[in-house]
Hints:
Shape of chain A: elongated
Strand order of the largest sheet of chain B: 1-3-2-4-6-5-10-11-9-7-8
CATH architecture of the domain at 3-255 in chain B: Alpha-Beta Complex
Radius of gyration of chain A: 30 Å
Strand content of chain A: 15-25%
Order of helices and strands of chain B: HHEHEHEHEHEEHEHEHHHHEHHEEH
Distance between the termini of chain B: 15 Å
CATH superfamily of the domain at 3-255 in chain B: Amidase signature (AS) domain
Structural class of chain A: alpha+beta
Oligomer: heterodimer
Number of strands of chain B: 11
Largest sheet of chain B: 11 strands, mixed
Strand content of chain B: 5-15%
Radius of gyration of chain B: 21 Å
Largest interface: A-B, 31 and 45 residues
Number of strands of chain A: 16
Helix content of chain A: 25-40%
Distance between the termini of chain A: 67 Å
CATH topology of the domain at 3-255 in chain B: Amidase signature (AS) enzymes
CATH class of the domain at 3-255 in chain B: Alpha Beta
Bound molecules: zinc ion
Amino acid sequence: xxxxxxxxxxxxxxxxxxxxxxxxxxxxxxxxxxxxxxxxxxxxxxxxxxxxxxxxxxxxxxxxxxxxxxxxxxxxxxxxxxxxxxxxxxxxxxxxxxxxxxxxxxxxxxxxxxxxxxxxxxxxxxxxxxxxxxxxxxxxxxxxxxxxxxxxxxxxxxxxxxxxxxxxxxxxxxxxxxxxxxxxxxxxxxxxxxxxxxxxxxxxxxxxxxxxxxxxxxxxxxxxxxxxxxxxxxxxxxxxxxxxxxxxxxxxxxxxxxxxxxxxxxxxxxxxxxxxxxxxxxxxxxxxxxxxxxxxxxxxxxxxxxxxxxxxxxxxxxxxxxxxxxxxxxxxxxxxxxxxxxxxxxxxxxxxxxxxxxxxxxxxxxxxxxxxxxxxxxxxxxxxxxxxxxxxxxxxxxxxxxxxxxxxxxxxxxxxxxxxxxxxxxxxxxxxxxxxxxxxxxxxxxxxxxxxxxxxxxxxxxxxxxxxxxxxxxxxxxxxxxx
Amino acid sequence: xxxxxxxxxxxxxxxxxxxxxxxxxxxxxxxxxxxxxxxxxxxxxxxxxxxxxxxxxxxxxxxxxxxxxxxxxxxxxxxxxxxxxxxxxxxxxxxxxxxxxxxxxxxxxxxxxxxxxxxxxxxxxxxxxxxxxxxxxxxxxxxxxxxxxxxxxxxxxxxxxxxxxxxxxxxxxxxxxxxxxxxxxxxxxxxxxxxxxxxxxxxxxxxxxxxxxxxxxxxxxxxxxxxxxxxxxxxxxxxxxxxxxxxxxxxxxxxxxxxxxxxxxxxxxxxxxxxxxxxxxxxxxxxxxxxxxxxxxxxxxxxxxxxxxxxxxxxxxxxxxxxxxxxxxxxxxxxxxxxxxxxxxxxxxxxxxxxxxxxxxxxxxxxxxxxxxxxxxxxxxxxxxxxxxxxxxxxxxxxxxxxxxxxxxxxxxxxxxxxxxxxxxxxxxxxxxxxxxxxxxxxxxxxxxxxxxxxxxxxxxxxxxxxxxxxxxxxxxxxxxxxxx
Lengths: 483, 485
Ligand SMILES: [Zn+2]
């Protein structure tokens, strides 16, 4: 019998929160400005300085934990995680250890044909490190002539979200990350940019025979910092481990680094070389008590989340499941969609446009819908014009492109460019007369019952009217005339 | 009496009566420093020039009619682990030899707002680790009563400055007795407030859960006046207690009638010098004569206090001191070719032996597989110590004990035997573990003319009781001894 293997994957995700100030000091958060300007004795780890907890960061963390269906611990403390590295000013990171803020949650991943429920083990708070820039050709610390540290990022509030080993394929892992990102974007507490590093992901991967319950030896994979790398890295690693097992080998517990250039994972350190972080309770901070009232107040600030929204779109607007979740998973698109629904009552039409031509143009121009020039009002106006038969869908495409680039009113664009559909039967009859006369061959074929021929004739009429003829009326007249 | 032996409140009185100027005070103190400084080595850095110019400014304020507040124009020595903006703060360590803080500790801001004068940065045991002030990169501090003897530690410098007239008073830090023990050995008053009463912001951390800044003064009145300035909530220190600060001077009443005073028998056992014990018994007699009620009490967990302390303090220290790595500030070995080597050599060359010893103990105690047996267990025993004190204070207003088991010992006597050295703090350490306020006041001199200290311990936030008993006993004891140099 052939051995079937399945991957067992758990993810650790770090999310930078965009509070006004850092986790433990009053410094502003920075977005790539001049180096080391947003620093103070606390985030530089100067002797004698002490941390003070940013209350806003706690609120944001609670918000994320609640949205992930976690139980909020009413009593939570910080620990110190000790290890030496030059991007860490104190050589310890203030983090949480055995008393995280949120535990026991889950996130449902819509995989199309099934839902994967991924357990959330814990949600905890910590501080980010500074950034190291290694001078030298390879950009690696061991081969650099010198390294420069930028502490602007040091102390930025971070949330770590750890899943249970519930993920069963690289595709599900990617689905989890996309769903998580969308969820956090809805909460408006982070910009979740994988390129900027405000959303980062490590994975724990093992494989086992499908008939087994026991989880195999896991490897931790670091540097999976885009949706693509996450999937590619995991695919490589899963294949690697299966190959090891199938050739009679044994998977060794390691921390591995994903190299996006080669698409492979390489050993970073073995289990024996793993850090002993010597966690102990941070004596410079006092325990945090999160009261029920605070939890309830924060719960009220959580907007409708994507999964709930998608269900509502199905019910309230009668959208198909695919459209609903496509729109609901993107805060901007769903907001736009709902604004449109206030002006126009065929939701499916709106969805088609947003998901089709509109999204295509947005992607091409690399902008988000909020920043586009097409207002919901104008989009709806255009849809009404189409419904009234004043323009056909082909013309509508052109009108929309102009709306997209100029922000113009659709009615005015149609008038200025004379694009209104010709529905005048007298006028169309004259044109059709001409076409029939010029194309006896096609007329003959039509009469012989070849349906294709009518398409050709309509096409001729459209060409003569520069696409403005109402195709339905043209069809009616030709059919009547020739039968 | 010479200017340099007056207390701050006596000097304030003379400033108010225009019998003296602030410049004369500073000059008087510096004259004394020049006279005895070389023999005592109590300062790491002097601030003579800026002190004199500050004195001139304060004199102008006074002649312009400004009210004279406590410590206005008074030269004060600051232990060199308290950050002073733009003035080196070395912690008596090579690793911070040239470190210049970019900010003031909260206590310094508070003193500056009272127009104090920084006399200089006082010598100490490196990173406040030690009981003899022999662990300083800047050399051993000598006891003014006998310069062959240690002044105690780690606030040896601050204690000596006050004892020898090199400053009117000083600020020290106390993690396991580092204010009280040198105060005892040098014959001055030293106070460790309730944990959280004085902001630790700007105090270079040794053991965060134990450290507390406090004053060393010539009498209890100056001590209370200094507490009025340095105590109080600070939002920059999360462990600072947000309570209303009383006027500590209002507790200076010589009346202890009906006060209940306990004597923990665990602090009067073997290892305590006969003369020290006798001094305590004499004081017990005094207390009873004044109408106080004295009883012996047992706090059984104190037996473990020293062990608990030497796990918790080094553990926290091992983490607190990891920031000294040569990357951002402080000593760096520039020959090292790679990062790990730079860390290793900078720290190997930058730290002294005792600091390294404690970093190693702490790192070990926190290591995977040892944490539960050491750190975790020590924390649980610490709770027992706290509970023992809690119970004791249901019955007593204060507890009294010797501050130090012995008078000042000879320089070098205990350096080769760290365990004996650690016993120097056996009476003071339990107080830090429980976060209590405690004072050491001079209780008299031994046969060989060395000061003996009495420790008075209060319940959490009951500085009032401690000060009341200290003030009453100070009056009753009438200690007037001065070192003969
Ligand atoms: Zn900062």
